[in-house]
Amino acid sequence: MEPVDVYLMYCALKAHFGKGQYDYHKYHGKTKITRASFYKRKDRYFFTKIAKKFKTHKEAEGYLVSNFIKDRRGYIVNFNDENYDTWKLRRQGFFEMFPVEMYPFVENFEPIFKVTDMQHPTLMKEYLGGRVSLESLIILDVLVEYSLEWDKKLHGDIVWESLRKLMKDYKGFLTIDPKRYRMKLLNLIEESN
Length: 193
Known about the structure:
Blueprint: H1 3-17, H2 35-38, H3 44-53, H4 57-70, H5 81-92, H6 94-102, H7 122-128, H8 134-144, H9 146-153, H10 158-171, H11 178-192
Protein name: Bacteriophage T4 Gp59 helicase assembly protein N-terminal domain-containing protein
Pfam families: T4_Gp59_N
InterPro entries: Phage_T4_Gp59, Phage_T4_Gp59_C_sf, Phage_T4_Gp59_dom_sf, Phage_T4_Gp59_N
């Protein structure tokens, strides 16, 4: 992979995870950024380093995505291997991790989604506290569509709007089999009763 290609991918992902409406998947990673603009940058070294380290498009994309999730501003100098390694491990074993994250809530499942008096729901607090992963939030939204209610009840809430955008942006990079996760969750709830 060439450094300029990593740069173009970075620009597309930065637009995708940024404040605008650009959709990386819809436009297949294409932007108006020119290849020539790469040679005007002073930080070309970082893109060269990534291009040498990751031979495939998918690996480089994973590296960039994992770092954009951690740093939404997307400063390339802040990107690091630790974010990528943690993300990769979480993705590889997530089907087994999902029930572990959900176990504390199965006995009283519905209240974790409840919004009362514009207060953040339990599920959001658990995510913000680092006890529930972004992947779990997305999977639960696919299964029970709680975000529709949160959109209504938390309208104008800065934390929710930022989290909602992150969930929407990241969802396209996940491969989710709703049936498998639904069965896993139902089995977990059944076992707890």
